[in-house]
């Protein structure tokens, strides 16, 4: 029998490795930015076209590479970060696996230009699918420029799995945020299709957070500082009243490397216990500095997962530090709402005794002296006005006996104000005495049918009703809007504002009225009828989250996604009590829809049980 095991060619092995390292354009951005940081760059530019599908280019002013290093960097397991296996547990650099450039070059067109400061000329290399097309001398500034074009050009199946440009751009933006927040001492610039998305200079950590997430973020931040022998913590947490329904503002950095740790995230949520509303998540931007020997970051190809030697100690320290900061800056609710600093006792009076107050009385003071003079003056000036003498008090009541009947008749016509009635969205006269529906566990509406029993999920049913209503308004572009007494000002990050700007036309068709929409602020003067003002920010946050995570492909429209998102935000929640009239209205509205069987997310809205099925339960 002939041998069947053989070594794979290098280009095939590189494509297999690329499946682990390069999952989407954001993976390329991450690897190239980390290489630029390891090159001690102080200025880094990120240029993107078509959400990275056409071009991903990173330009830095780092130390550059020699001609030999530039060529060798595209070989597998070629790295300058480690030399022995023991170095894996003393890492202070980013890209150490030596597979990034080799994997990227196997599935894209790569152009590299690099020059060291001591050299007069640099090197330019062009590689297409692991095949080196050219290597020549080039005139280029000090540093390195890597341009990755036509990603997955030789693997069309992988390219077809890429999402829409909006989704891929969101992933790239997330990677940019993670790198830029970890290194505030480096200036970053981010361009997409020629437009400037971010341009942040060298600054401190607080300024970096504010530049990335908007100027309104500054008032949300609470500093956290703690240093022990095991762990050093620095950074910020967000105030509880600015918490979000999404986890978009949660960042852990361990030794300037972004990591995901559900265990440490639980420590933060535990510190915020009792301060957050249900369904909301805290914001945090925390830098953790530990001994490199106590962590292992080589357990996942993306290096976003990390393993600690003593997680329990880190958990306790992190929880205590965050809780201490929240208490130190009076974030927890207190009873003294109007504290006056003037009532505080100065430190100089700490040991002094209270002195007996001395009382002085002005015995010549007459409080009625001024009043007597005023009366005398008024009498002298008004002597010509005389009041009529009251000779007989009995005359004041003359005629009352004869008109007693008239007074009684007058009082009989007096109408009294009726008692206040509870407001209801339905007419009370429409309420029937016979109850045909009832609510089960404040979640299901149970009604009778000729053939058996009907059970309706009130949340999913209301979502279907609202979804078709909103979709109708967006389609015919006729929606009723209610004007706000005072304009509502909302603040979002530049990326979130751009999403709302893209959906502005569809939002206006549902009833929203925008008077101003800039990168820093959104002003709303009108909302759809029936939408409370307090729910507007929640609706827009939910919409942004849905757009970022579930952006429709070409088969769906933005209007469909908008209708689904608004229906999900405004639908009656499980646990809300409904009276019998509202229950019947919900059932009737559901079966008046075009597709009452399923919710907008294709989940069943109701089930039926035939009498035969019920009878079988008793057999």
Automatic annotation (TrEMBL):
It comes from Winogradskyella marina. This is DNA mismatch repair protein MutL. Belongs to the DNA mismatch repair MutL/HexB family. Pfam families: DNA_mis_repair, HATPase_c_3, MutL_C. InterPro entries: DNA_mismatch_repair_CS, DNA_mismatch_repair_MutL, DNA_mismatch_S5_2-like, HATPase_C_sf, MutL/Mlh/PMS, MutL/Mlh/Pms-like, MutL_C, MutL_C_dimsub. GO terms for molecular function: endonuclease activity. The keyword Zinc-finger does not apply. The keyword Ion transport does not apply. HAMAP family: DNA_mis_repair (MF_00149). Keywords: DNA damage, DNA repair, Endonuclease, Hydrolase, Nuclease. Residues 436-578 form the MutL C-terminal dimerisation domain. PROSITE patterns: DNA_MISMATCH_REPAIR_1. This protein is involved in the repair of mismatches in DNA. It is required for dam-dependent methyl-directed DNA mismatch repair. May act as a 'molecular matchmaker', a protein that promotes the formation of a stable complex between two or more DNA-binding proteins in an ATP-dependent manner without itself being part of a final effector complex. Residues 209-327 form the DNA mismatch repair protein S5 domain.
